[in-house]
Amino acid sequence: MPPPFPSRDDSAALAAYERGALRPARPNEARVRAFLAERPASTPADFWEALVSGGILPERALADDRRSFDDPDNRSDHPAGIGATAWPSSLETSVLFASDFAMVERAEELALEVARRLSAWSPAYRVRYVQWRVVGRDTWVASVWRVQPFFALLRPAMESYSALSNGSTEGDERRDDFHLAIDRLRDPPETTTWALANLCWAHRAARAIQCDPSLPPSPFDPLVALWQTGYTARGFTEDTALLVAPSLP
Fold first, then answer.
1. How far, in Å, CA of 197 to CA of 126, rounded?
2. What are phi and psi of 132, to 5 degrees?
3. What is the rounded distance in angstroms from the CA atom of residue 43 to the CA atom of residue 21?
């Protein structure tokens, strides 16, 4: 079960939430490193294949052609482009992804669900692929915060919710809370905790305002769940979710 969403004013609860969210667990790192120690001269491709043949990774780690990994020496945002490979570009990044592959797959599912929900407002999004990039831990918070495309799409969509209030003060307050949350989310965060607090606030406002079952589901639910896997998205192309993982300590 994911941890409960804390109040944005409860600093202790937010700190506890932050310790779990946006921090990959990587439970199999020791096992994967031991496996690598037995074959230190492996290329990244050979090592990734060995992880599959050795039973550490499932067959779909190689068979799923929707997934690609960014090559920092020759970058492209499209899985079919130059620099996109079917395995991580180095042994160290292979360890990173293999150590937490179940959550990597879960993060991919959630990112695709975010994109599916956003497509209710932007038909241009027909996301089928995922591409991973590793960023340094010193820039992780800034990378995490690249969620503005979600809010740029959401804000115009919120106008369609004006009918929800029907003159109700409660409906007006919910809508105002959502817009205020979006305004604050556009500011760069001071800390990861600040970012989490405000995302949770906007998430709650989005859920509160959607009392009409005919309205599209909020992308905030899978987005917050995505953060709880330890990973996030830095954006989308027309057909690709661009996912980000923090480098190993």
1. 30
2. -100, 145
3. 32
Class of residue 119 by CB neighbours under 10 A (exposed 0-12, middle 13-18, buried 19+): middle
Instruction: Spell out the long-range contacts of 207-216 with Cβ–Cβ below 8 A and sequence spacing 24 or more.
Output: 208/174, 208/177, 209/158, 209/161, 209/164, 209/171, 209/174, 209/175, 209/178, 210/161, 211/164, 212/164, 215/160, 215/161, 216/117, 216/120, 216/121, 216/157
Question: Dihedral of the CA atoms 82, 83, 84, 86 (nearest 10)?
Answer: 120
pLDDT tens for each residue of 162-185: 444 444 445 555 556 656 665 655
Q: What is the CA radius of gyration of the chain?
A: 19
Structure token pair of residue 195: 């970012």
d(CA 94, CA 246): 13
> Are residues 186 and 151 in contact, defined by beta-carbon separation less than 8 angstroms?
yes
Distances from the Cα of 224 to the Cαs of 18, 117, 152, 202, 203, in angstroms? 12, 14, 17, 10, 8
Asked if 125 and 236 count as a contact pair (C-beta separation under 8 A), the reply is yes
Amino acid at residue number 66: R
Tell me the pLDDT tens digit for each residue of 73-130.
665 554 444 456 889 989 999 999 999 999 999 999 999 998 888 787 666 568 899 9
Task: Give dist(CA 59, CA 77) in Å, integer.
Answer: 25
The pTM score is: 0.80
Q: How many CA within 13 A on the CB side of residue 37? A: 6
